């Protein structure tokens, strides 16, 4: 057959059976259940150590050839035949914030491993993963991880779990049984019937549970055995090699020396150097030509920086990095289509155009922070997190933070929102010149490898900004107060005037301008000091008796007690529309209900609308 998408030779007639492809596995579960550790145990390379906070933040893929798998499965069943070339594991992030990434990973996979921590049972994310698997009707098994945490567990690295459980003292077996039963009950309540894999009579109706320890490797042979056995028994027809192309973009990344690349998983079909390809982009379909097909050196994962191997063509299912011009706006999660000699390019473009991405629905705000992330996946994750946290975003970008990004962020200063002159950089480098410019222009660059940390930094920063605003606004803020002068306690009649007063309402603060409404709002000065029981205080409230020092400026010094006003006049703080707004914006926490009520009364006195 000519391999164009119109050929019907890939029908499953027995004559066209070419063999099986590798099943694609995905590992899912709650944050600290040990997903990456489990994969590493299988892989024996340590991505975990080089990973941000132990949380996987990019979709990676690893291939395990049948020879390596045989080593493991023979510990469980020496007679088991492996009929597939190997297993490919996609390691999707397991964090709330990476919701959309995980959804993406699971549509690609043939089989999922749901990791549950035996010590913690079902956690919010476990439940979320379960719902997802049900939705996608994806076949899965459960790895009941961390059995090594059972009290006084006796371990023997990388052994079969049945053997491992056999060698435990009775009280360990009992604790295992108790915890296992509890979790089975929780799963039952979610409508799932489960059984230990060796007791499972009907794997299509019951979910197999494989106890494991990512730490000691116990149960890992069983996990691989069950993954292979399930794939071969439950979905052999789905794993038959087909000629039609089936390929998904999992990440869009900028790599030094290569420009913007896409990481794809090729499931079926063939990719060649020079192929014309179509993928979804932020602004519409992207049509480009494959310049290079790269795969990492064996036993590395796509996320670990390594030297690549170049290929002329690839027709085995695997994770591949594609270099091609014009991929800057490509969208992760898109199907990748190849335009063959008999294909209609416009049709293919329409096919990818209906792919919906967060970014298409993303609303830029006129005032907000500037966001940079390493990949589209992490950008999506960060955006959905910031939306939940109600942090406005003004613009977004991918890759290293450059001078132009700092310039973009400083636009906020001209727009009179200096607090948003912030670049939030998630999992990306910051260029040296950009750093210098940011220091010079007063733009904040916040960097982090974990979304939460970025959020914490921003929250802290906003608290400081608000504190600074308060200090700045102290002059504009006028707290409501009404003072009754005490005719027995007039200590000084001219600048600085000293009078004893009773506070009739509101709160008295240093710096407050005082006036006399019945004398045409004549301003007599500002509060320069307050003493209560002969001790200086910063403020005083209704009902308190204090001695007030009123300081005057040059245009007020002619105003004296006795000549222009006396104890019969009531003193008010001079409020305005601006000062009220200032209180609302910056001092809400310091105003009580009665203070606001007083403001309402005073607005009438001063005719404020």
Describe the fold and architecture:
It is a single chain. The chain has 15 helices and 29 strands. By secondary structure, it is of the alpha/beta class. Residues 1-13, 45-59 and 93-106 have low confidence and may be disordered. The strands form 6 sheets. A 7-stranded mixed beta sheet has the order 2-3-1-4-5-7-6, sandwiched between helices. Helices cover 29% and strands 27% of the residues. The N and C termini lie far apart (82 Å).
Q: Roughly what is the average pLDDT, rounded to an integer?
A: 82
Give the low-confidence spans. Answer: 1-13, 45-59, 93-106
Oligomeric state, counting identical vs distinct chains: single chain
Number of DSSP E strands: 29
Largest sheet: 7 strands, mixed
Q: Please report the distance between the alpha carbons of the first and last residues.
A: 82 Å
Strand content: 25-35%
What general form does the structure show? elongated
Number of helices: 15
The largest sheet has its strands arranged as: 2-3-1-4-5-7-6
**Helix share, percent:** 25-40%
Radius of gyration over C-alpha positions, nearest whole angstrom: 34 Å
- Structural category is alpha/beta
Gist?
The protein is of the alpha/beta class and 609 residues long. It is 29% helix and 27% strand. Strands 2-3-1-4-5-7-6 form a 7-stranded mixed β-sheet, sandwiched between helices. Strands 22-23-28-25-24-29 form a 6-stranded antiparallel β-barrel.
How are the elements arranged and paired?
Blueprint (H helix, E strand, L loop, with lengths): L23 E6 L5 H9 L16 E6 H11 L9 E6 L7 H10 L2 E7 L6 H12 L3 E7 L15 H6 L3 H20 L4 E3 L10 E5 L8 H15 L11 E10 L3 E10 L2 E2 L3 E4 L6 E4 L2 E5 L11 E4 L1 E2 L3 E6 L13 E2 L6 H9 L4 H4 L7 E5 L2 H13 L4 E6 L4 H12 L7 E5 L5 H10 L2 E5 L2 H23 L7 E12 L4 E13 L3 E4 L5 E11 L2 E3 L1 E3 L3 E7 L18 E4 L3 H10 L6 H13 L4
Parallel strand pairs: 1-3, 1-4, 4-5, 5-7, 6-7, 18-19, 18-20, 20-21
Antiparallel strand pairs: 2-3, 8-9, 9-16, 10-15, 11-12, 11-17, 13-14, 13-16, 22-23, 22-29, 23-27, 23-28, 24-25, 24-29, 25-26, 25-28
């Amino acid at each position: 057959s000519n391999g164009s998408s119109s050929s019907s030779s890939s029908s499953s007639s027995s004559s066209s059976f070419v063999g099986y492809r590798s099943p694609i596995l995905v590992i899912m579960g709650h944050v600290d259940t040990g997903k990456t550790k489990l994969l590493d145990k299988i892989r024996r390379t340590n991505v975990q150590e080089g990973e941000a906070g132990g949380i996987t933040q990019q979709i990676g893929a690893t291939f395990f050839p049948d020879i390596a798998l045989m080593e493991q499965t023979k510990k469980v069943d020496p007679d088991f035949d492996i009929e597939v070339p190997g297993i490919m594991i996609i390691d999707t992030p397991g964090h709330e914030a990476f919701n959309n990434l995980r959804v993406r990973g699971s549509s690609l996979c043939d089989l999922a491993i749901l990791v549950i921590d035996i010590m913690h049972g079902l956690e919010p994310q476990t439940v979320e993963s379960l719902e997802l698997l049900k939705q996608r009707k994806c076949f899965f098994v459960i790895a009941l991880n961390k059995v090594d945490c059972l009290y006084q567990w006796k371990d023997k690295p990388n052994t079969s779990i049945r053997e491992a459980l056999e060698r435990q003292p009775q009280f360990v077996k009992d604790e295992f049984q108790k915890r296992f039963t509890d979790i089975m009950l929780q799963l039952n309540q979610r409508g799932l019937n489960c059984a230990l894999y060796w007791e499972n009579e009907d794997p299509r109706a019951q979910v197999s549970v494989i106890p494991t320890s990512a730490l000691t490797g116990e149960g890992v042979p069983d996990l691989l055995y069950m993954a292979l056995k399930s794939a071969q028994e439950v979905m052999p027809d789905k794993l038959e090699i087909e000629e039609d192309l089936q390929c998904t973009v999992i990440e869009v990344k900028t790599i030094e020396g290569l420009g913007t690349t896409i990481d794809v998983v090729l499931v079926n079909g063939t990719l060649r150097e020079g192929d014309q390809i179509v993928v979804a982009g932020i602004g519409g379909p992207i049509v480009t030509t494959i310049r290079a097909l790269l795969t990492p050196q064996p036993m590395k994962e796509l996320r670990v920086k390594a030297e690549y191997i170049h290929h002329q063509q690839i027709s085995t299912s695997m994770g591949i990095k594609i270099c091609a011009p014009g991929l800057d706006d490509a969208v992760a999660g898109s199907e990748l289509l190849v335009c063959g000699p008999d294909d209609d390019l416009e049709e293919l473009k329409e096919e990818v155009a209906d792919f919906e991405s967060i970014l298409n629905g993303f609303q830029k705000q006129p005032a907000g922070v500037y966001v940079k992330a390493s990949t589209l996946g992490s950008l999506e994750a960060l955006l959905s997190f910031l939306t939940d946290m109600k942090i406005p975003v003004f613009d977004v970008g991918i890759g290293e933070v450059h001078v132009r990004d700092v310039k973009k962020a400083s636009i906020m200063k001209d727009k009179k929102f200096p607090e948003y002159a912030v670049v939030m950089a998630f999992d990306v480098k910051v260029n040296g010149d950009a750093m210098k410019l940011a220091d010079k222009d007063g733009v904040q660059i916040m960097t982090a490898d974990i979304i939460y940390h970025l959020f914490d930094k921003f929250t802290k920063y906003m608290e400081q900004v608000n504190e600074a605003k308060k200090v700045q606004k102290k002059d504009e803020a006028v707290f409501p107060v009404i003072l009754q002068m005490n005719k027995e306690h007039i200590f000084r009649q001219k600048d600085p005037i000293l009078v004893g007063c009773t506070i009739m309402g509101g709160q008295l603060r240093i710096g407050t301008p005082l006036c006399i409404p019945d004398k045409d709002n004549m301003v007599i000065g500002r509060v320069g000091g307050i003493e209560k029981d002969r001790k200086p205080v910063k403020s005083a409230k209704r009902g308190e008796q204090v001695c007030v020092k009123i300081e005057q400026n040059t245009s007020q010094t002619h105003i004296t007690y006795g000549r222009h006003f006396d104890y019969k006049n009531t003193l008010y703080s001079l409020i305005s529309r601006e000062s009220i707004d200032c209180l609302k914006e910056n001092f809400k926490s310091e105003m009580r209900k009665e203070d606001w009520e007083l403001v309402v009364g005073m607005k009438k006195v001063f005719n404020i609308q």
